Amino acid sequence: xxTTPAQKPIVISCGEPAGIGPEIAVAAFRAVxxxxxxxWLGDPRHLPAGTDYACIDDPAAAADLSAAGTLPVMPxxxxxxxxxxxADPANxxxxxxxxxxxxxxxxxxxxxxxxxxxxxKAALIDGADFAYPGHTEYLAALAGIDRVVxxxxxxxxxxxxxxxxxxxxxxxxxLTASLLTDTLLITHAAMRRDFGVKRPRIAVAGLNPHAGEDxxxxxxxxxxxxxVLDALRSEGMDLIGPMSADTMFHAAARQNYDVAVCxxxxxxxxxxxxxxxxxxxxxxxxLPFIRTSPDHGTAFDIAGKGLANPSSMIAxxxxxxxxxxxxxx
Length: 329
What we know:
With 329 residues, the chain is α/β, with parallel strands linked by helices. It folds into 2 domains: 184 residues, Isopropylmalate Dehydrogenase (3-Layer(aba) Sandwich); 119 residues, Isopropylmalate Dehydrogenase (3-Layer(aba) Sandwich). 38% of the residues lie in helices and 17% in strands. It has a 12-stranded mixed β-sheet with strand order 3-4-2-1-5-12-11-6-7-10-8-9, with helices on both faces. A hairpin with a 2-residue loop joins strand 6 and strand 7. Helix 1 packs across helix 11. The longest helix has 19 residues. The protein is globular, with a radius of gyration of 20 Å. The mean pLDDT is 94. InterPro entries: PdxA (IPR037510), PdxA_fam (IPR005255). It is found in: Cytoplasm. Keywords: Cobalt, Cytoplasm, Magnesium, Metal-binding, NAD, NADP, Oxidoreductase, Pyridoxine biosynthesis, Zinc. Its cofactor is Zn(2+); Mg(2+); Co(2+).
């Protein structure tokens, strides 16, 4: 019988079986099992050969198995095999079901958090008419949430892009006061709830070079970004900016804030991937449950070759556990 929140497992959804998800999950389990109970959701046929696992139907059994070094598995039946590097659409519905099952376990209190292995969206579309651009949107739909925020984090830096996967030419159009306001509010709340920062210091990048240079290199800072920041400052938020993005990521500057909010994808992801390429974690903020993920894809080119680096998965699991502790406290 599970008696404390710390004994509840962190769920790992299998992700694309033909990618590196199963092998990095097993490697991460070996690294963290002594102090962090895990529960893998997927088809056990897709685990690397020689994996020591046990199938269970009650998440309460995961803690003892994890402590003993045996990977707890809640089986999800899938229609296909797993050939490294070649996605099989027959597995698509099972991959989706593993995500949904993991969310259900966290939502009903049987697990602490979900850590999702990378999916292959084309296979999900071909095999199950998957209607979402990716993990994040599907998780938001499962939670009944309209707007969530993507954070990328490593030991040296946390960043949040306001606009994400849109062409650079489209950023200025998509970047609205409403979107920026919601992103800042969600980020502020998550820093308090999930990271235990009582008064988050949020650095906000400008859109244009030199944050617009007083309107000489763009007016978005004057016309939209600064008014949003001023309005939220009046509500008590500690906001720095808009800042010139080319001077806000060096070591001394990073000491002045807890998270950086950037206006577009590369403005945020280049610094965090430079500082923590192998250990970056993708976190979805604004969900009623905790979700983390390694910051990489399925890596079909190295799947099954023993070359996959589990560092990002390990970091994602440890961050999920830290966030769960912060929520519980």
